[in-house]
Specification:
about 60 residues; single chain; alpha+beta
Length: about 60
């Protein structure tokens, strides 16, 4: 993902990690990769052309 950010400028990458737990103790030498989020610059720029909408979920609407 570092190379993607380097060659495709404007790409955003975020990682979610956690520490490894072995025998009930934190092992800071090992990291678990939980998920990775990335978005390319053209996708970010494309949002300016989307129409704004308001969506109402009427599940909890019981009155006026």
């Amino acid at each position: 993902m570092i190379n993607v950010q380097h060659f495709l400028l404007g790409t955003i990458v975020r990682y979610k990690t956690s520490n490894s737990m072995e025998d009930g103790e934190d092992d800071f030498s090992k990291v678990i990769l939980n998920c990775v989020f990335w978005v390319f610059k053209p996708c970010i720029e494309g949002f300016q052309y989307c129409k704004s909408i308001v969506q109402v979920d009427d599940t909890f609407l019981t009155g006026k």
